[in-house]
């Protein structure tokens, strides 16, 4: 099977690592750096906050001047652009997200990638329990907190948004 350009990049830049720091040839895991503990901690705590719909736990992960960029911002906040900035706006947006999660918004994923500063993972459309909203989350981390959070939507997720 031919290697993807991403796999070639990883091989040239030190390989792919699991969260335990051991090298892996598998496609799951993290690229470890000195700050990878922050990325792994945020990955785990964000998922817990999302699953529990815990607004305070979610907000504690963000810097005071952090931003979230997503099509959902326009939809829920009725704004022209898709960005919320600052803790107060984040509070209002995340609270609305937790109140309005459709059943297709599940949390199946298969690991994450991080260079210690940028944390990325995918919620694929196909999951063991059927289709879910297909999203890619990208978080820029600074001093142990999320500074910038971007959510990219796939076609299935956009259709769910249009129907709501």
UniProtKB/TrEMBL annotation:
Q: Which domain of life is it from?
A: Bacteria
Pfam families reported for this sequence:
SnoaL_2 (PF12680)
Record protein name field: Nuclear transport factor 2 family protein
**Locate the SnoaL-like domain: which residues?**
46-149
Q: Which organism is it from?
A: Bradyrhizobium pachyrhizi
> InterPro entries from the entry?
NTF2-like_dom_sf, SnoaL-like
